[in-house]
Amino acid sequence: MSVGGGSGEEPSPLDGGGGRLHALLRRAVDVRPHEVSALLASAAFFFCALAAWFVLRPMRDAVAAGSTPTQISMLFVGTLSVTLIVNPLFWTTVVKFPPRTFIPIAYHVIVASLLVFYVLLRNYAGHEGSASDLWIGRGFFVWTSVFNLFVTSLFWCFMADVFRSEQAKRLFGFIGVGGTLGSVAGSAATASLAKSLGGVNLLLVSCVLLELAVLAVVRFPATGDAARVDESREARLERLAELNARPVGGNVWAGFTRTMRSPYLLVIAVYLILFTIGSTFLYFEQSAIVGATYADRVSRTVVLARIELAVQVLTVLTQIFLTGRIIKWFGLVTALAFLPVASMLGFGALANLPAFAALAAFVIARRAGNFALTNPGMEVLFTVVPREDKYKAKSFIETFVYRGGDQLGAWTFAGLTAIGLSLAGIAWVAVPISAVWLALGVWLARRQGAMAATS
User: What is the average pLDDT across 138-145?
Assistant: First the structure.
């Protein structure tokens, strides 16, 4: 299933007015007229999904700020355990239902869980620092850490299914703008409203945004597959509708088995593990430095939201004006190599100056680089694998493998701390890890190009 791509396709209904909308979009992204409706629907879907998550992210991170490495490690163990339980349930749904059915089901379950936490936090949490507050906060940390991966993974699974490799390289960067704007909106809402509105009430805002994301999936435009230009538009739409209605099928455990049997998928998994180890190291250092710099949870929530806001503003500017052009001019290798190189430099700088200013600068640069370049590049990798792998192996890699990398990073950080390494010393350990990560990124970019050429 793919969206347009070639001559012979009619313009999108959204591209009215003599192509004015298409002409406007062309200033920022290399989009064809028949791709406009799908491009905008994808961006709207991603906006709602990420806005829902980033409303909650500073609240989750405030729970961890000030905690010891051992306590955070236990939170990561809980997250990994819940992810292990949720994955088989998700794969069972994938086998039985088509994407436009199982994606809404998954999002509705997440909304229901947030409403449960709303009731718990409002009625049973007690005062800050009480036993009930600590345990409910830990449960909130674990569950939101699980669901945020499924929210974003499901979105990109759908994107890898509806766009081909060539389209993905052109359009995924701009589609990411929708998510970045959602991140900005979510972070800004929390930063500005957390004290006046109360963090608990922001859970309801997140629920509304997730339901809007469901609407975007259900109403996603069926623009047809223009790769077979000898067909009539009606025949293409009929064939696409049949594909949309067909379950992905296959084996419930295929996400694991197909990943283990494919060198390409295995390297993607290792690449992601190295990314998460670096992210976990940085997260622990962030928790320690922010916890030492700011005394109460509300202050930590506000400063973390401001950092997140800076990340997303920088990201959206890069995505609009640079992402698609960088991948087009310099190739996928640039997108996959940028973050490892930036991490080598950033961890080196943090090793020399483990203070809040250095931390904030590195966090902003790393996260903006991830959203603007590495993440779109990673999603392009999955456009050349079979459809079953796009929903099962991809989900397995982006949830369980991702959280496994978190846990490995947490254990490694705790071990390095136990043997006496300081924050600066641990930052030095991350530098050679980033160098290996760089080598894998170069290999994946070259392999994806070869697979795309033969598909």
Answer: 88
* Dihedral sign (CA 342, 345, 347, 352): negative
Q: Which two tokens stand for residue 360?
A: 């904030």
Residue 148 structure tokens: 């945020």
Question: Greatest CA separation found in the chain?
Answer: 69
Using only C-alpha atoms, the chain has a radius of gyration, in whole angstroms, of 22
297 contact partners, CB below 8 Å, separation of at least 6:
62, 63, 65, 66, 128
Average pLDDT over residues 354-358: 81
How do residues 6-23 score in pLDDT, each as one tens digit? 333 333 333 344 377 777
Measured CA to CA, the distance from residue 424 to residue 401 in angstroms comes to: 27
State CA 43 to chain mean position distance: 14
Q: With a threshold of 0.70, does the pTM exceed it?
A: yes
Contact 152, 399 (CB under 8 A): no
CA distance linking residue 272 with residue 277, whole number of Å: 9
If DSSP codes are grouped into helix, strand and coil, which group holds residue 246? coil
Residues 116-134: what's their mean pLDDT?
76
**12: DSSP letter:** P
CATH class belonging to 32-454: mainly alpha
Residue with tokens 């991809």: 394
Between 238-247, 271-280, 327-336, the lowest mean confidence (pLDDT) is in 238-247
Q: Where are the alpha helices (DSSP H) in 97-201?
A: 99-123, 131-162, 165-197
Q: Which amino acid is at 187?
A: S
Judged by DSSP in three states, 375 sits in helix
What single DSSP character describes residue 44?
A: H
Burial class for 11, CB neighbours closer than 10 Å (0-12, 13-18, 19+): middle
- Token representation of residue 85: 């339980």
Can you say whether residue 67 is alpha, beta or left, with left for phi > 0 and alpha for psi between -120 and 50 degrees? beta
pLDDT at 224: 41
- Hey, what are 288's tokens? 């320690």
Structural domain boundaries in the chain: 32-454
The DSSP secondary structure of 60-91, one letter per residue, reads HHHHHTT--HHHHHHHHHHHHHHHHHHHHHHH
Please tell me the distance from the alpha carbon of residue 407 to that of residue 404, in angstroms, as a whole number: 5
